[in-house]
Amino acid sequence: MAQQLQQQLWNIANDLRGKMGADEFRDYILGFIFYKYLSEKMRLYADKILQQDEVRYVELDENSDEGRQYIDAIRDEALEKLGYFLKPSELFIVLAAKGNANTGDETFILEDLTNVLKSIEQSTMGTDSEEEFGNLFEDLDLTSSKLGKTENQKNELICKILYHLGKIDFEIANTDSDILGDAYEYLIAQFASGAGKKAGEFYTPQAVSTILARLVTVGKTKLKSVYDPTCGSGSLLLRVAKEVEDVSSFHGQEMNRTTFNLARMNMIMHDVHFNRFDLKQEDTLENPQHEGETFEAIVANPPFSAKWSASQLHLDDERFSEYGKLAPKSKADFAFVQHMIHHLDEWGHVDSTPAWGVI
Question: 17 CB contacts (<8 Å, ≥6 apart)?
C-alpha cells in the first residue's frame, strides 16, 4: 500500500506539472497534499464528535443557528486538539467537488481556495499553535504565471490536481499507520533527486540519515529531545524518531523560508503534535534561536564549506569563546560543530548519555 500511494502521488506530480520544473511544482503538489491531510483530519475529528447526534460535519448548515452552534463548539475543541480549524465549506472534498475537473467544465475556485488556505492560518491566531501554522501556505502562489498564462488555465490545472488527489484514499483514519507521512517524505526525496546540488538544502538521503540516526540512538529506547541546527525539510529529525520508541520533543532551525515551511508541514504530516516540535527560521550561526537550551541528541547535515561572517564579536559568544578561535570566514564547518557541542546536554545525564552526529 505504501509503495502504491507513493507511486500514485508521484505520477500525479509528473503528469500535471507540464513544462514547469519539478522543483518549481514541488511547493504546489506538496502544499495541496498537506491541505487535503488537514482537511481529512478535521473532518474525521468533527465526525467523531458528532457521531452520537448522527450528524456528518460536511452536512452542517453554516447559515442555520443549529449548524453554527455545532461549528462553534467543534472549533474550540479542534484548536486545542488539532491546532487549526476548517469550516465544512472549507473542506477539501467540498472544493474538489466544486472544481468538477472530471466534467471538463471547471468552476472557478482559485479565489475560494486562496481564502481557505488563509483561513487555516488565521484560525490559529492567538492560540498555542499560531507559531507552528503561521504563513505555512505562503509558497502556494495561486496567481503565479507558472500555473498558466490566463486565470482560466491556472484554475484548470488546480482543479485537475484536486480532482486526482481526491481519488486517493490517504487512510488517515488508520492511526497505527504512517503511510501518508512516509509517502510525503518520499515525494520530498523525489523532488530532491531532480534538484541537483540544491537538494542538499532541504533533504538528506535516507540511507545517510538512517546511519546517523542509528549512531545517536545506540542503547536508547526513548529520547527527551532531538535537535537539528540545519534541519532542512525535517527528514533527519523524523528519521531519528524511527529508531526509538518515543521522542518527547523535536527542535530545529532552518535559514531558507520555503524549506522551513516544508519542515513544519513534514512534522504535521507525520502526526507530530504542534506542541511537540519547535522549529525556527533564521541563520543558525549568526542568529541562533535556541539560546540557553540543550538537547539529548543532536544531528545535522550542515552546508559544508559555507561562508559566514566570522565576526570578532563571536569571540564573546559562549559557543565559540572557550576555544578562543573562530572558523575561517570561507569555511564555517567547525563553527557548526562548536554550535552543536554547545547545545548538547551535559555528559553523565542520569537517564541516558547524550549523543551528537554530523554528516
Answer: 24, 25, 29
